[in-house]
Amino acid sequence: xxxxxxxxxxxxxxxxxxxxxxxxxxxxxxxxxxxxxxxxxxxxxxxxxxxxxxxxxxxxxxxxxxxxxxxxxxxxxxxxxxxxxxxxxxxxxxxxxxxxxxxxxxxxxxxxxxxxxxxxxxxxxxxxxxxxxxxxxxxxxxxxxxxxxxxxxxxxxxxxxxxxxxxxxxxxxxxxxxxxxxxxxxxxxxxxxxxxxxxxxxxxxxxxxxxxxxxxxxxxxxxxxxxxxxxxxxxxxxxxxxxxx
Amino acid sequence: xxxxxxxxxxxxxxxxxxxxxxxxxxxxxxxxxxxxxxxxxxxxxxxxxxxxxxxxxxxxxxxxxxxxxxxxxxxxxxxxxxxxxxxxxxxxxxxxxxxxxxxxxxxxxxxxxxxxxxxxxxxxxxxxxxxxxxxxxxxxxxxxxxxxxxxxxxxxxxxxxxxxxxxxxxxxxxxxxxxxxxxxxxxxxxxxxxxxxxxxxxxxxxxxxxxxxxxxxxxxxxxxxxxxxxxxxxxxxxxxxxxxx
Lengths: 245, 245
Fold this sequence. Notes:
Two copies of one chain form a homodimer. Chain A is about 55% helix and about 10% strand.
């Protein structure tokens, strides 16, 4: 379907189209369509743009990835469908490893997402053979590969709350992208980016490029100045006040 | 996928799972998945529980169905997937007729929903042959069967704004279940229940059982005391101000 240029919500409809295409290709789970619908609602209340709070979190996130010893980026179905190239570029700019990591896991879907990332230019893609288990999680969801297992800083766009908590318990610094500031993921992460992943990833790349030359001290100062709790509360106020006629 | 008992948001994920299962069975439309996501967003902002306002509206709704001459319950795909047994029980307790009524209508989906309701214990299910047209609506959406056509009071869980308005123009009392207090359906209905349908239907059954012995005067008093505009405004304030965590 082509959406006419005149449509005022063309951008949002094109993102939705990208997701349904990803669903048809087998990258996205049915539950991923619902999750996207929830995200659209929060995004609508945010005015469908990157807030000042989100921009601040995106800069802190870039600083955290650049400061890390072993940064990793977790990629699920929705992320692979919406920002495959962005995920690969962010990994390259920040020296992060990419790991496919699904909540509704099937071998087939993992393989398709791995291929999509390769097609978008990725080098090694982790997560296609799981070698480790995250303590305190039951079932398939506990399995991870070397990238997330060894990471000191991990970016989880669109992650489940349970897994975010388990990653935190392992002592990792968790960066989340979540349009819902009330989710457990949002509340448990160290840096929560309340923004649409299609804006958040390009913004993080931009910040990472700008920060790449800076020394460790400057990056540490950015992280020290960032207060996730206050930032989240401000995002929540923004969303609730966005509910106007 | 089985969601482990330990997951703190098991209930919400199971509802989501029920909907994706309904989608795979052909009961739910693609648009129904996205609409459910939007509902989840508002439900999050409400704290995922029945508010005092919603409970009041649910009691008034039960009184309205019990007071009606010809009450009807409209069932769409999401309702059939999420609360088939609840819909059938509510119809039984309140003496309402059940009518399958879809926005994205196909013969096949109508038939599947009819079967799902029968399997859940329904007697006669209306809506599988449409005999009448709602004035002022174009296309397939205008067609209804005897239950909605003759109803003086009609419950429309998760209904489109256009149809809600058309039912109102026919002089019917409309009860809506809608998590978005700003939707046209929410604003046009006589009784608007701002609650998740998986909580609203069981709550209405409970109220209907308690009210069933009462005389018409007592039911009329409950309806007289109910002010939908004020109730809706209170729900909206609740969402805007947020619940304490």
